[in-house]
């Protein structure tokens, strides 16, 4: 695409979206550490100089991409959950795990978010990201409050944090690379890589039952 000077805010948003789309394409095709601004510029047909008019680092781009993934997951969870699933915790667990499992890019990015992306982002870009993240979590809290009306905010926050931490740890073990698969096959390990949705649903059900029991004792 030929580069044209941006004259309106709408045009700037279009350029940012083009940069994000190019970054996502690369992210889906190669390891994060191999993605460079030069590759992103080439994917968009921008020069690196033109790219720097909109972003200053790879991490800045992927903060934006990560937020898109967070918002997409939040919207899908809201659409999938019934308003009150207190009496059918197993169904809630299966639904939650299934929806999260349908967002592998979210899982990949959040596994990098706290250890790589945020650590290499500027404060100027990280603060707005944190604010938007907090707003998304506030909306998710509301969704969970409708699903489990008896839960207080502390219980909801414990659930959100627990499931996120577990998902981040579980996902890499359920999506091995070809070389990891081959290494297991050629080693003496009798190991079967777990299914993400199945394992995650089991964890979610255990966690919800534990939190529900604690909540019931308080009331």
Automatic annotation (TrEMBL):
The keyword Aminoacyl-tRNA synthetase does not apply. InterPro entries: Homeodomain-like_sf, HTH_TetR, TetR_C_34. Pfam families: TetR_C_34 (PF17929), TetR_N (PF00440). The keyword DNA-binding applies. Gene3D superfamilies: Tetracycline Repressor, domain 2. Keywords: DNA-binding. Residues 13-73 form the HTH tetR-type domain. SUPFAM superfamilies: Homeodomain-like. It comes from the Bacteria. Residues 36-55 bind DNA. This is TetR/AcrR family transcriptional regulator.
């Amino acid at each position: 695409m030929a580069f044209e000077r941006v004259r309106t805010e709408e045009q700037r948003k279009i350029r940012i979206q083009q940069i994000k789309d190019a970054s996502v394409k690369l992210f889906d095709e190669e390891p994060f550490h191999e993605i460079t601004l030069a590759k992103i510029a080439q994917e968009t047909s921008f020069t690196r100089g033109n790219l720097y008019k909109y972003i200053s680092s790879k991490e800045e781009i992927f903060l934006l991409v990560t937020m898109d993934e967070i918002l997409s997951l939040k919207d899908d969870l809201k659409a999938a959950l019934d308003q009150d699933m207190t009496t059918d915790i197993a169904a809630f667990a299966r639904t939650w795990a299934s929806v999260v499992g349908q967002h592998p890019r979210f899982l990949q990015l959040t596994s990098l978010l706290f250890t790589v992306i945020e650590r290499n982002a500027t404060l100027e870009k990280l603060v707005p990201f944190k604010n938007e993240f907090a707003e998304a979590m506030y909306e998710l809290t509301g969704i969970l409050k409708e699903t489990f009306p008896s839960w207080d905010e502390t219980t909801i926050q414990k659930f959100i944090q627990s499931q996120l931490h577990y998902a981040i740890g579980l996902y890499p073990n359920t999506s091995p690379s070809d070389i990891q698969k081959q290494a297991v096959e050629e080693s003496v390990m009798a190991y079967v890589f777990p299914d993400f949705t199945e394992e995650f649903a089991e964890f979610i059900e255990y966690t919800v039952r534990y939190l529900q029991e604690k909540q019931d004792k308080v009331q």
